Amino acid sequence: MTRKYNFCAGPAALPESVLEIARDDMLDWHGRGLSIMEMSHRSAEVVGVAEQAEQALRELLGVSDDYAVLFLQGGASTQFAAVPLNLLGANQAADYINTGQWSKKAIAEARRFGTVNVAATSEDTNFSTIPARDGWQLSDNAAYLHYTPNETIGGVEFFWTPEADAPLVTDMSSTILSRPINVDDYGVIYAGAQKNIGPAGLTIVIVRRELLGRAHDLCPAMLNWQVAAENDSMYNTPPTFALYLAQLVFAWLQGLGGLAAMADINRRKAQKLYAAIDGSDFYANPVDPACRSLMNVPFTLADDALDKVFLAESEEAGLLNLKGHRSVGGMRASIYNAVGEDAVDALIAFMQDFEQRNG
C-alpha cells in the first residue's frame, strides 16, 4: 500500500511509525491477548499508559509540578465553555484577543457565562495580522487573558507571548508540541489532540494548580478541572485508545530529539513552502510575513477559476486535503509535525508544475 501525503487541518496526519506500532498492537497489546482499547480504564495497563503519557508530555514541554496535566474529552471547543466556568468570577471580566475564527468562537461561548472584553481584534484586516500589543485595551482586575497563538483557518501565528497581570489562557490546539514554549508563562494551556498530539477525541489541559477550585457553582463536574485533577483524569471513562496513541506520539517526538529538533524541522518546511509561494506570481499568501503560521499555510491562485482543477490534480498526485476553509477559500496546506519534509517537497514540485502548465 502506498500512503499519500495528508495536508488536512484536522484530524491530521499521524507519524507512520506510530501507526505501524498501533497496527501491530491492535489485536494483542503487549501479549495481553486483547487490544488496549478493550481494557478497563482502571486496569494497571491503561493507568500505566496514562502515567507514561503524562510524564512524557511533562518532559517535552517542561511542565513542573505546579501544574496539573489533564486528559479530557470534548475537544478544545468544550474548553471554550470550561475556561469561563472554571475561572470567571462574579463582577469580573475576561479579556480576549480576537485574531480569527477560533478566537471568535471562544469569545461567543464565553459570553454565555459572563462579561467579555475584546481587548484587541484584527478583524478589520480580515485576520491577516496580529494587533500591535501597545493598542490592547485590557480590563482592570480581569479574571484572565485568552488568546489563540495559532489560527488554523487564517494561518496567523504569535511568535511572542503576551504579558498581562491576569492569568494567561491559551488555545494551543494547532501549535502545541511544534516548538518549545515556556509553560510557566501560562495559567492554562488547552489543546485538542487531532493536529500534533494524536487522533480526535482527546483534549489536553495544563492548568496551574493555584487556579483550581475557582469553578462556578453551576459548573458541571465533567467540565470542572479540579474534579478531573483529583481523579487523575478518570472521573469517567477517558478516551483510552486516543490516550494510548498520544503516548506513542510523545515517545516519537522524544526519539526525534524533542521540541527543539521538531522546531527546526517545522521551520525548514514552512520556509520552503513560503519561499515557493513568494517566488511566484501565480500563488499568493495573504498573511503579514511577521506572523505567518508554521503549521497552516493558506494560499490563493492568481485565477480562482483554476481552484477546482488544482484540487483535482493535486489529489490525483497523492496530495490530499488542500482545499482552504470555506470561510476564506483558496488552498491551505497544514504541515503539522507528522507531515514530513518529503511531503512539502512533493507539494512544491506539484505547484511549480501546475503553474508552468496553467500560468
Helix-strand layout with pairing:
Blueprint: E1 5-6, H1 16-25, H2 44-61, E2 67-72, H3 75-87, E3 93-98, H4 101-110, E4 115-121, E5 145-147, E6 150-151, E7 156-157, E8 168-171, E9 188-192, E10 203-208, H5 225-230, H6 240-256, H7 258-278, E11 283-284, E12 296-301, H8 307-316, E13 319-320, E14 331-334, H9 341-358
Parallel strand pairs: 1-13, 3-4, 3-5, 5-8, 8-9
Antiparallel strand pairs: 2-10, 6-7, 9-10, 11-12, 12-14
Helix pairs in contact: 1-6, 2-6, 3-4, 6-7, 7-9
Summarize it.
The protein has 359 residues and is an alpha/beta fold.
Structural overview:
There is one protein chain. 34% of the residues lie in helices and 16% in strands. By secondary structure, the chain is an alpha/beta fold. The model has no long low-confidence stretch (mean pLDDT 95).
Task: Name some characteristics of this structure.
Aspartate Aminotransferase, domain 2, 9 helices, 7-stranded mixed β-sheet, 359 residues, alpha/beta, 3-stranded antiparallel β-sheet, Aspartate Aminotransferase, domain 1
